[in-house]
Structures are given as structure tokens and as C-alpha cells.
């Protein structure tokens, strides 16, 4: 019986990549999106790509970051799926290589229990181009999942994970139910369930 569900945020619970929305404000959306795609497809080191992309955001007003973070489009079915999983007794958590400004706000709307993500450093109201946090490396999600399983006393067989990109591979190694949601081929290859439509409620029919 499943007890723990861990979801990625960008392009899983949220329809898009948070950092790309920020980059659009600076007119560098396409440049950042290309780096994001390379990282999510497993062709670039996640840590290096994150540092590179955040560095390009230097100077963006933090008020703009907050405004965008509060107006991101959620994936169809996200709220309903989380509500149903919690009704079934699961703890639902979000792991994101993105940012707390988005995952922390979305937590209260979508209803998951906790979020682990990164924090954009700001000084004097502007982004400095620096970032730190819980999910900085390609192995971070798997590492955090193992710790969470130990704290909660949950086994791999009782764990569901859901994501779309290469940085979700590390948590796939620690869960029996591995959902690739509108995912890159590198993740589909390791999945036990593949969803190719933008509707998270389809997960509920598979578990």
C-alpha cells in the first residue's frame, strides 16, 4: 500500500519551467529554455546548468519574481490528484530543482504537505545571480527521498514518485512506483508508469 508520494514541480505539478518565466522578463527566455532542456534531457550537469541559468537572472527585481511565482499555471488535475492521494492516506511532498518562491506559494493552493526546493539569493530587492538550497544537484532528490523514507518509516514499495526530467532519475531509484509524466526519454526508460497527456488525474487510474 502506498504511503508517500513525491512530485516534481516544474512541468509536473506546474505547466512549464519557473526559471523560463523569470527569464522571459529579461528577454532571455529562449536562451535559458535551451539550457533547461539540455539539463532535463540529461545532456548537461544539473548543478552547473542551474548555476548558469540563475546567473543570467542577475538584476531581476525580486518583486517580479514574487509576482510571477504567484501566477504560474498549474498542471491540469494537480489539485484534484493531490487531494485524492491525501484522502487515501498518503503523505504528499514536492521536490523541485526550482525555487521556494514558487513551491512555497503553490503548497497552500495545491495542498501538498511539504516542499523542498532552492532559494534565489536577493539583495537590495534584486537577484544577485546566486542560488542555494535543498535540490542543487542531480542526486539531490534521491538523497532527500532516502532521508524522508527513513524519517517516516516508509519503504520503497510504499513510495510513489512522479517527474519529467533527468534530475528526477535519482529519486526513481528509491521507489517502486515510478511515474514519467510528459517526460523526457531518459526518464521514461526507468518508469513503471508512463503518462503522456497533460492530466495528472490519469495517475489515479494506474495506482
Distance between the termini: 10 Å
Give Rg in angstroms: 16 Å
CATH domain fold name? Rossmann fold
CATH architecture name = 3-Layer(aba) Sandwich
Order of helices and strands: EHHHHHEHEEHEHEHE
Number of strands: 7
Main sheet: strand order: 4-3-2-1-5-6-7
Integer count of domains: 1
Number of helices: 9
Helix content: 25-40%
CATH superfamily: HAD superfamily/HAD-like
Shape: globular
Uncertain runs are none
Give the integer mean of the pLDDT values: 95
Strand content: 15-25%
Q: How is the main sheet built?
A: 7 strands, mixed
CATH class: Alpha Beta
Helix and strand content put the structural class at alpha/beta
Describe the protein's architecture and organization.
By secondary structure, the chain is α/β, with parallel strands linked by helices. The chain has a single domain, classed as Rossmann fold. It is built from nine helices and seven strands, in the order βαααααβαββαβαβαβ. The protein has helices spanning 18-25, 29-40, 46-55, 62-69, 78-87, 100-110, 140-152, 169-172, 185-188; strands spanning 4-8, 91-99, 114-123, 126-133, 159-163, 177-181, 193-195. Helix 6 (100-110) links the parallel strand 2 (91-99) and strand 3. The mean pLDDT is 95.
Short structural description:
The protein is of the alpha/beta class. It contains nine helices and seven strands; from the N terminus they run βαααααβαββαβαβαβ. Helix content is 39%, strand content 22%.
Amino acid at each position: 500500500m502506498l504511503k508517500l508520494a513525491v512530485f516534481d514541480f516544474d512541468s509536473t505539478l506546474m505547466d512549464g519551467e519557473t526559471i523560463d518565466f523569470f527569464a522571459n522578463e529579461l528577454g532571455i527566455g529562449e536562451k535559458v529554455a535551451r539550457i533547461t532542456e539540455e539539463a532535463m534531457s540529461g545532456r548537461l550537469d544539473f548543478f552547473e546548468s542551474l548555476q548558469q541559468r540563475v546567473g543570467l537572472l542577475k538584476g531581476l527585481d525580486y518583486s517580479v519574481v514574487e509576482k510571477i511565482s504567484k501566477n504560474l499555471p498549474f498542471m491540469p488535475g494537480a489539485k484534484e490528484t493531490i487531494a485524492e492521494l491525501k484522502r487515501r492516506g498518503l503523505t504528499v511532498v514536492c521536490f523541485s530543482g526550482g525555487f521556494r518562491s514558487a513551491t512555497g506559494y503553490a503548497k497552500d493552493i495545491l495542498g501538498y504537505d511539504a516542499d523542498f526546493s532552492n532559494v534565489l539569493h536577493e539583495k537590495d530587492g534584486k537577484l544577485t545571480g546566486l542560488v542555494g538550497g535543498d535540490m542543487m544537484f542531480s542526486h539531490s532528490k534521491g538523497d532527500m527521498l532516502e532521508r524522508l523514507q527513513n524519517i517516516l518509516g516508509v519503504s520503497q514499495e510504499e513510495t510513489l514518485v512522479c517527474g519529467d526530467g533527468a534530475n528526477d532519475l535519482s529519486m526513481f531509484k528509491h521507489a517502486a512506483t515510478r511515474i514519467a509524466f510528459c517526460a523526457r526519454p531518459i526518464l521514461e526508460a526507468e518508469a513503471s508508469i508512463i503518462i503522456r497527456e497533460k492530466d495528472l488525474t490519469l495517475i489515479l487510474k494506474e495506482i
